[in-house]
Amino acid sequence: MAEQSIDDVLESPQRKLVVADTDIDLRSSIQNDIFILMVQESHGSAGGRAGGSGGRKIDKVIAFSCSKGICNSYFETLDPEKIDQFEIPYSAVAMDIVLSTGKQVVVQGLIDPNTVNNYRELTNNL
């Protein structure tokens, strides 16, 4: 599986949930761990989850560690058994992020150091 840059993953049209330690500005020198949960495209889910009910099915998890403007992928899985161990954050909101090129994009996600720590511990044990 060819490794994608974090910019490519964040700009991809596939729905995703992004969980990060701090606000995402990929030009920043601040240390930031970023987990990207790719949402499986399901047919017939026009518009998403009515009133917040229903579910999101994650089909891929990628983790990046960013520091001093460089992001390295340190975890990636397509394994459903591993993915099922990641708690899906249902409190995600629209977030403005800045890519390494300075381009601003909007993604669904949240800034939650506790969730990032839980995910990081999980990746160490998988």
Task: Map the helices and strands.
Elements: H1 6-11, E1 16-20, E2 32-39, E3 58-67, E4 70-77, H2 80-83, E5 93-98, E6 104-111, H3 113-125
Parallel strand pairs: 1-6
Antiparallel strand pairs: 1-2, 2-3, 3-4, 5-6
Explain the overall architecture.
The protein has 126 residues and is α+β, with helices and mostly antiparallel strands. It is built from three helices and six strands. The chain has helices at 6-11, 80-83, 113-125, and strands spanning 16-20, 32-39, 58-67, 70-77, 93-98, 104-111. Mean pLDDT is 89; it is low at 47-54.
Identify the notable features of this structure and list them briefly.
126 residues, 36% strand, 3 helices, alpha+beta, six-stranded mixed beta sheet
Sheet bearing the most strands, described? Answer: 6 strands, mixed
Overall structural class, as computed from helix and strand content, comes to alpha+beta
The helical percent reads 10-25%
Principal-axes shape call:
globular
Gyration radius (Cα, Å) is 14 Å
Number of domains: 1
Number of strands: 6
Helix count equals 3
Oligomer: single chain
Kindly, what is the distance between the CA atoms of the first and last residues, rounded to a whole number of angstroms? 18 Å
| Mean pLDDT across all amino acids | 89
What strand line-up does the widest sheet have? 4-3-2-1-6-5
Order of helices and strands: HEEEEHEEH
The stretches of 5 or more residues where confidence is low (pLDDT under 50) are 47-54
Which percent range describes the beta-strand content?
35-45%
